[in-house]
Fold each of these.
Amino acid sequence: MTETFYEVMRRQGISRRSFLKFCSLTAAALGLGPEFAGKIAHAMENKPRIPILWLHGLECTCCSESFIRSAHPLAKDVILSMVSLDYDDTIMAASGHQAEAIVEEIVEKYKGNYIVAVEGNPPLNEDGMYCIIGGKPFVEQLRYATEHCKAIISWGSCASYGCVQAARPNPTRATPVHKVITDKPIIKVPGCPPIAEVMTAVVTYMLTFERMPELDRQGRPKMFYSQRIHDKCYRRPHFDAGQFVESWDDEGARKGYCLYKMGCKGPTTYNACSTIRWNEGTSFPIQAGHGCIGCSEDGFWDKGSWYARLTDINQFGIESNADAVGGGVAAVVGGAVAAHAAVSAVKRAANKGEE
Amino acid sequence: MTSKAARVHAEPAVYVYEAPLRLWHWINALGITVLAVTGYFIGSPLPSMPGEASDNFLMGYIRFAHFAAGYVVAIGFLFRLYWAVMGNEHARQIILPPLFNAEWWKGVFHEVRWYLFLAKEPKKYIGHNPLAQLVMYVMFVWGILFMIVTGFALYGEGTGMGSWQYELFSAWVVPLFGQSQDVHTWHHLIMWYIITFVIIHVYVAVREDIMSRQSIISSMISGWRTFKDTRRTEGDEF
């Protein structure tokens, strides 16, 4: 019989009082009513622990870095220890063949009943040779580990969308997980990195309720990705008032005006930064005076400058955007119309003369 | 009276544009003007307002005007589709052009030749000429449909999950484009596409009013098409 979550926690020296605090905090973070704290506690006391394999592909480990800084220390300790018990090649104690053997052991022992969390993505060019784990291409490890898994968590923008390594021209053909593994339920937790509390809450939800949180059409958990940064931004009143930072370090910047004109991607970015914030709720990019770069959106590296409101349209030259292209077309057509009108007038005058 | 004189064909005025259609045309024109101006200022806002945030609501008003005009144009477009069914045969012209009719395409090319100063005289039409039909169909009908769909998708992002705008539009449009930013970019680009249409539309209406064989601008005001010569209309009606 496998241990329950509660047993694992107690073994880690966590008091029952702290355990219950964790349950109620998690319920609050997930947007559940107070009565769910008891349900979470009950589930954690009775359900056997679901093992998680945490794989690392082509990535920068910023997801792991974020995860281990989760604001609530219990969430960090509890979930991290539950995860690292199995496999996470960055933070586990085992190494080499011992480490790789764990993957095999989990796959054999818990067939169909374990979760694979993927940080980073597999590069597919050159048969996947751009990312080697334990002597084999990462894509092989990914396929092997996910074959019998219950669900996949795509950590961060790399696993969800491709991120920087998939930015044009994508030399290694880095490919998001859902385009490689197509037959498993995948939950995307985009962000570069995702917010720590979002990550721990997603894991907790899945372990506690043994099901995926409700997802939107793009496979992101609705509870954290249903609104844009802009919708809950504390600088939103300045946007509505029409008060913008016009250049860095101007009067508006000092007064904390809206960063829309400085290219803030808050209006097009779905994430919880403006509500949960970062580093124990201390701040988030816009609060620090820098616009959102849209790191949790698909292809955010290829949408032009982070400091421009309008997206670059590179097909029409490196400095092009919608106004340059569309305004150019309208100007050309306007010129053509003027020329055509002139010729028409001349023709008409000539015809009049003939008549 | 000679037989020759009897063959002189006097062309009476024809009632082409019914009142609801004319009303739609001008409301739609006004709506598109408001949308283009406010839309441009949403993409590139005016200089910052001085004073407290609580004393100002400029961006809010601009966005409100944009959304209100968007509703007007969208509802107007739905009405226009309805009128294509309920109105007279001219009301169907720009909504369902006969794209698979060779004769009609001949008419298009004749009109193109007229605009390239190759044809000596335009044909005479009671409704739209085929080229006008084609351009309105491709640029206006599909352009405005694209703007309505992407516009409501962007609006639905603000009204949020659960709202009908989100469920009907944002939920599939945003994933289709990849993300919200690209929907914005395309919405912006097609604005210029429609502005280009408006430039052509206004120019051609004025030019045809002067140079073609039938009335154009006054017809969209009074509804009546009048003719400048007494020869027969050779342009077929589709």
Amino acid sequence: MTDGFFLNQLVGLEDTGLSTLVWLIWLGLMMLFLFYPTMSQRIQLGYMLRDLEKKLARLKLVKDEVRQRTIETIKRVGKPEKDPTQDVDKLMEFFVISPEDMDPYGIVYKLEHVLEVGESRFEEEVRKISPAAEGYKVKTLANLLEVARTANYLYRIVRHYYLLGKKTANIYLILQLQMLMPQLMEITEALRLASYAFAYGQPIGDGIGVLAVAKLAYGREKARYEIAKDTTVSEIEFENRRVLIVRATGPGGTVGRPGEGVKKLIEREGDNVKLVITIDAGLRLEGDESGKMVEGVGVAIGGPGVDKYKIEEIAKERQIPLYAFVVYESIVEAITPMKEAIAKAADVVVEKVKSVLLEKVPAGSTAIVAGIGNSVGIG
Amino acid sequence: MESIQPSKMVQKYVPPLTFLTCTHCGTENSRAFKEDDYVFKKTDEVCPKCGKNEMLIVGIYVKEKEKKA
């Protein structure tokens, strides 16, 4: 009696050479999983690594595409004497080290200093490689390089965890990376589309705050001046109320320094300021409608928090109420060319701001309206 | 590294339109975006209705397809 015959008798099969072979393979696999329990994990890890490999290849494609578009745009707009490729590659590795926060006292101003130095240095470098570009275009080119830098950073981070997970065969590391990949791929695609917007100077979704205040000021402007770096104030008169409109100076790509601008205006105007309104793009949740305007209180400013802190600090000191309007959009919509639904929300915001000014600001007083966001493509 | 078919993931870039208003007769017009266009820029383009050559850019955005009811 053979082993195969015995096994086949157990399950009622006829003894053929093939069935014996199948049983032996089956037994072999059972033994393998018994004595090597991480086998299934290894197989799963292999599948996940292959999936990540494909996505990493896509990230590299996007990073290279954005880099190439940046180089071509600098050649077209900046007309450098020598090939800017090496300089672009150098700037794609540029970094800013955030200040030490073990002792948090004064951290906001330290952070502001570091960010300002970083921004100026980055802009200087872009200006050097784009001698023929006008001032506002240098800012947009700096934004384009920021996009290329972010795409490069994202690619390097994903590659780091992929290689680390592969080297150490750490399924938990790879699992976490794989779970994050759909969002990272979405951001990568957004960066690719953002590179078109900055290459041609088109308004992006994040510029909705700037667009809304530009519409509010248009045709009513009595004076216009710079209050802080890349930040403009437009003074208008609305129904016997003085309105100081703060925004980033367009049409170049910059967010300006709205916090510093509002702070200086309040210090200058003293108790005349009765209200501060901020308007910004806000990240919508899945299921929310893009371009929907919502209102609340507080300071509607994203980013590292320096501008928000400055406005909150002085508003609290002077007991000035803070109103905020936010236009919903996704992270992709915020950095890609502005969509119709978002652009049209600007008119809704303007009407709402007007009614709040009438309702909350006494005649003869002053209000500050700050449009927050990137001013690319908005003059 | 394995190459992939990007078509499944790639979002197509849709260039925005530039919307202009004639400063004389208020006629609204749109065209494809051109480099150096920006919102509130006065251009010397000719109004298709009154023929005056001063139009104001009032919007630059990606036109969305109308949703079916």
Amino acid sequence: MKFNSWYLSSFLISLIVLIPIITVFLSFFENTSNYYQILKDTFLLEYILSSGILLIAVLILTFILGVGAAYLVSFYKFPGSNFFKWALILSFAVPPYIFAYSLTAFFENYGTAFTILKNLFGDGNYNKNIPKFDGMIGAILSISFSLYAYVYILARASFLYQSQNLIDLGKNLGFSKFKSFYKVILPAARPAIVAGLSLVAMETLAEFGAVDFFSINTLTTGIYNSWIYFDDLAFANRISFFLLLFIFTLFILENLSRRKAKYHFNSRAGFKQKEKIKLLGNKSFLAFIFCFFIFFISFLFPLSQMLYWTIKFPENLFDLNIINLFINTIYLVTLSSLILLIFSLISNYGNRIANNKILNFLSTFSISGYAIPGVILAIAFITFIAWFDDNIIKSFGFGSIKKIFIGSILGLVLVYFIRFYSLAFNGIKSGYEKMNISVDESAYLLGYSKRKTFLNIHIPFLRNSLLFIIILISLEIIRELPITLILRPFNFETFATTAYISASEDLLEAAAVPSLFLILIASLFIIVTSKYILRENE
Amino acid sequence: MNNFFEVQNVDFAVGGKAKVRNVSFSIKNEGDIVCLLGPSGIGKTTILRTIAGLEKLNKGKIELKGKILSSEKINVEPEHRNISLAFQENSLFPHYSVKKNISLGSERNEGKKNQKIKYDDLIDLLDISQVLDKFPHQISAGEAQRVSLARSLVTQPDLLLLDEPLSNVDQSFKEEIQEKLKKILNDSKITTIIVTHDSYEAFYLGSKCGIILDQKLKQYDDPYNVYHLPNSIEVVNFLNRGTLIPAEVTSPKSLENKDLGTITGNFVKPFPIGSKVKLLIQPEDLHHDDSSNLKLDVVDRKFRGTNFIYTLKTPNNSLIPVFVHSHHIHQHEINEKFGVKRPIHIDHIVCF
């Protein structure tokens, strides 16, 4: 095998992405302070228990919302079904922590619900009759309504590519509609649904903003707290290790399911376009209500709440330097997307031409960064830089490099890179999978060098995939909270961090303005790429 | 004088696993066409890929125009070989139109004074003018194959490699394309190696044919010799154009078979008198004669348009193919008796 520069670059990129994972793994075997023992006897169990309850409840709710909505819009025609098809993914624009702020703002004592009732019916003691969605229930609702779209998108894509032949087969066997659903349609979409639920599970375990807002002690908040409040990096890394084990199990499960799901999406042989059934009367009304309820709660509700507060407290709009926040956000998005794209392209191309088993394994392993909570990545990164600084840099007599990487744009972008590398890598990989290797070989035989093949054949071919990846990464970075919070330079704020800081200081009204802008920018990105997200371009 | 192209003792391998061993053959003159025949999966494509430089070589040597392209120590990268390979499957650039795909092939020749092939002639000959503005996914497999062929041809390579070039072309159109392809290759004097499993295609296009069987190049000869003078039982079985029946050599110019009696002719390879041999009977060797007293049972009849191939069963259960022109009025049904003309004379007697 020839160790060319493409191979070497690909190898190094994978290795850099793997650093935090290796750091977390190694730090498990280090000693920690006595506080570990105390926590182990008291809070650790609570962390695990809370994470478990949260996970199970969110999975059940996202399954019902995601599969239910996907089934209705894929198989039936009813008023608004074409609108809901893409509108239901707008919930991606509302991160769980903003949903949590809205939920609290609406239902709290003297909150928006109270104001509405007062305006409608005059003064009264409405507070005791208004339900309170805080604590665990608040966290479950916030995360579920924000993340159900993962299940919706994948289930819908699977339903979309289910051939009419499959449904006809059910009818031919004499199945009722309900029996067809659970005997034919659901099993055929199972890998896609499991893949969606696995993504939800990983995001739920990694969720920081909403659970922190509702003061739920999960493993993720435990990691953050042990670092911020107890200054115990080693303990933070130990909790991370437990969380990682759990997440890796889900990651493997997700990967296995996705492999099968891909089969479903690509299988076009004998494909027969489905004909949607037109719903009438009550059934049509119920289908509309179900989809509208999800759309309203997941998107319109938080958007209206934030808009209402922005209008009600306009001074917050002028207190904030919106242009500055916008520039900061766009700066991070542009820089990170560019770096992610360039390195993922190099890595993918290196993999493609080297076709080496070690490199393939390393790449598969390195893309697990997406499954690791941002909190863990940020802390593992700090741990690694501290170790590298103390043991390597100082031994050569150089000055400290901590300031270069911690609390700097460079460090922030580097951890974004690790976190979102899999998005870019997998996006390009799936683009490449549509291009037979004989296309490369044809180019070589036409006299193209490897570099010229990459630039003149591959890049134009991957153009659409690259555009889609840029928007996905942008969406993620705009919403990202814990990494930005931990690693941002002093006085450098984004819409997400400004919203978080205001909310953590109990200034929910002030959190509304950055939240509103965040939702609007993210919505714009989603609308632009809805066709790709819904896989209607394939 | 040196050969134009030469393969010397090469093991053709994929991923370190040899598929065809110790292969040697050469192409004497520029512009010659060679066809490699063999069953699917035998390693024909591997041979082309290795010659093109897409697979590495661990044993032997490949030379083109006196220059070593591949050996244990030397490996010229594919882009520097000026060898073109048209893949069997669609390898067109999916995001470029057909026209652009072909023009990318001609980039290599920009500035070349001696343009052997004119773009317009090629488009016309391969009948692809109607698909020029389409994208690869919008054209049929047969059209894609012809476009791929055009792209390879416009590069005007020193050596053109074609992997089953007409496998996806409609049967009705195949002969026409074969004729056009042969004309283009002959006119442009582009040296070509064609891999195919269709022996008729190989016999028509190639000035030499190589038969690959059991990891070896079994025979490399003129098409006529490959057909009429196969050098092994394996080649006979692969070509599937005859049957082997037991016989005994009775003189330098005759043999005796229990069912057919005396057969005369010229031995390709001499055998001592009294030798027990297997005699190759090809469909053209026996002739129909209703008045003959040698009657055999018809067990099958294949109508091929211009002719019938009857399969006859001898009393000793040998199955013998016999060619009869289809305009012959007297057709024989299965289980009927079929007269074979005597005495039997075969121009070249092939025995093993």
Amino acid sequence: MKYEVVIGLETHVELSTKSKIFCSCGGHSEADQPNDCVCPACCGMPGMLPVTNRHAVELAVQAGIMLNCKINQYATFDKKSYYYPDLPCAYQITQWFHPICTEGYVDVPTKHGTSRIGIKQIHMEEDAGKLVHDDWADVTYVDFNRTSVPLIEIVSKPDFRSAEEVLNYLDKLKSMFRFGSISECEEGAMRCDVNISIRPEGTEELGVRSEIKNMSSLTAIERAIKYEVARHIDALERHTEVLVQETRRWDDMKNRTFAMRNKETAADYRYFPDPNLMPIVVDDQWLAEIRKNMHATIGQKTAEYTGMGLSEQDIASLVSERTLCDIFDAVVASGRKPADTAAWILTDCAGILRRNGKVIGELDIAPEALSYIIGMVDEGKINRGVGKKVLSAVIEKGVSPEQYIKEQALDAKVDESAILDIVKNVIAENNKAVGDYLGGKTKALQSLFGCCMKQLKGKGDPAVIRELLEKEVEKLR
Amino acid sequence: MDYFVTEIDRAGTVAVDDTLLVKGFETKAGSHILDGFVPLFSADAVDRLLKAGYAVKGKTHTGEFGLDIAGETSYHGVCKKADGSLSTAAAEAVASGTVKVALCVDVNGAPRRGAALSGVDFIKPTYGTVSRYGIIPTACSGEQVGVCAGNAEDVKELLSVIAGHDGKDGTSLPAEKYGYSSDKDISGMKIAVVKELYDAAKDEVKSVLDNYLNKIESSGAKIETVSVPDVKAYATAWQIMLSAETCNNISRYDGVKFGYRTPTYKDIDELYVNSRTEGMGFTAKMNVLYGSDVLSKNQYLSCYDKSLRLRRVASEKMKEIFASFDAVIAPAMSSASVEEYDLAQTFERTKKELLFTTVPNLIGIPAMVTGGVQLWGAAFAESTLLSIAGAVERMAD
């Protein structure tokens, strides 16, 4: 019998806010020592009260707009109770009764065309801390750095029919959220619960579902789905086991899933509205402001760049990274030509980074600096070769282009008589090349030109040099 | 009599309940499970006191998490009146002149009962006027810091100090300053007696109330009786919310982070269970059980959700009454004194007393106990209550 796979995802995404969702603690990073980024509020001391971070709400609403959701202008925060040492208050503040966004969709590209995946809801919640086990001393410590970091949970409808759709969906969310500055989506900042069941093809009724908790790597998700599908088919066809609705854990080493103990899953979370947090009311004015402050989406940027006449390949490269678009936009806004600017970024900057073992996404240059260099070249104050040299210094050493050009005297005017001296010199020293040229090998002129450039150390207007060189050589004919 | 669980400044004139945090001083809310917990910050109300130049004499004993009749469930010491009957340590400290005023957290009416039992004044202001930042939380949706003092004038003075907006409390109201008075003319005021509460009180309480009504009438106020037929249902609604929120709020005392930790455990489950079993008293446990039950999947709609709706019904009903009356008067509790009793009955006995004190906690209106009776006002009508109390107190002079 042929089976159809039915998958739904719950995806947790860490929002890029400066501070935590209910207190003013700053964001944490992996480099922080345990419990560096905590305050009495996020470690659950009695007497502290939560106050909602407006920016977190704005980012959640922007995510909802990106995923074509209905934005609920009235939303509440609710408490979810359970005991775990990494949860300092023994409750998590989440949105159970009135989530911020509902009923959306996202179109996901697949080998067979586009699949539309429904979004049931997006809700905000606070993250929990983490436990650190010291095997040597056999002690477990609690690290609250991650506690109260703002998350959104995106709950999809059971619309996925293959692992490919799941992976492409996650990829799409990742690039959308990174591009829209909703989330950095770094390692661990995006985690999934995968709900999976199978049914005979052509039937409507859903099969027994298993939920695989807390997956963060795409390859593990793919392997876990394949494993579960095989396990479900085995159970139905060969009666290897009786399927029950349960929560399972993926073991990456053993390459299989395991049922979690019932005790860990059979919880009644006793949800109720949090009386300390007033309902969130996103009125029309705030909603308009949020829309206005939204970064353009990848689609909008692509259309904009197409309108500027950029090539498809350049556009794809630019929109792969939000920061590239930001640099590009700023340079173009300062009056530089779009196609030219794209070439400087995607060819010259990329080349310099590659030489330094970096990728284009790591480009970190002030748009003003790049614009200045391009301007100097456009105005003929330095030639393109010198421009590249300045660019290298700016990217590699972080110098100011203006100062660098001055210090190295790269824009020093070379007058025609000086150029003429050098041209004559080169002609005198290269009898063979001159002879070749006069004998009809026009390409020999290029080698003479190179010699002139070398002696001029890159300075001087190439057009003038070429013109003088040609004139002098022709005189010998 | 020892009113204080922790002494802070001998020269102080203010006492604060042990449910309010004072930076650097152990705060336990009457519970063994918070033993050793030293807060890193003070409650906003305490900060305002200190800034205004008051000194805190000490922290008064409170019942465990403030969930009893009048402080009798404190783990660290129980206050008694000279005749051996019960009252709260804060009210007794004021009545004895040990301090001029005391701050208490009113979540189930205990400070109001204490004031009635000790013959002093206490006001629980409108929800949101005093910051709840730095209160050991029990039922966040109805608890409020109030002021206990020997007369309405002193109550007014301290209330003016602690009220005001606090950005650290998301439910704090935006008014920067509240102007309170205790000398409004009460002649011509209309005051309603709640029939159901009057009828539910013992004769000894009825006669105190009758006596008080006579005094108000002689000042030119008019008295009428009103009926609030659902008042018992309101009390049940508040008991449900009170237990549910308390159960949730005190879940954080698990032996992991601070406070009491059991010496005997094998794993994390035992650490939780033993710490909480040994660290919490009977009444706290009853609230945990009751609260867990009303929030469970099967009960939520019929208990908690219905209570939320009843809160709105109660609010509408009281608005209707305050449209024609300046204040409501009712007994503060069923009897005029409380003798020592078996603490296994605390949950049930407190539940009965909630009948008299629930409405102001449930819907956030101000309540004041004075001369052994209880006054309620519309939201922000503290001055009306203070003025009635003040007028009667001036008559006695």
